[in-house]
Amino acid sequence: LEKRGLKDNTLIVYMTDNGGTRGVELYKAR
Q: InterPro entries from the entry (predicted)?
């Protein structure tokens, strides 16, 4: 993300509600 210039406007959320990794969702702030 840092190399692509998305470090400052990207929020990485790790979903672990079920005790396992659901995945990584990217929300770009625009």
A: Alkaline_phosphatase_core_sf (IPR017850)
Looking at residue 24, its pLDDT comes to: 53
Output the DSSP codes for 1-30: -TTTT-STTEEEEEE-TTSS--EEEEEE--
Residue 25 contacts residue 15 (beta carbons within 8 Å): yes
Using one digit for the tens of pLDDT, what is the confidence trace for 1-30? 567 666 666 666 655 555 554 555 655 655
All structural domains of the chain with their residue ranges: 1-30
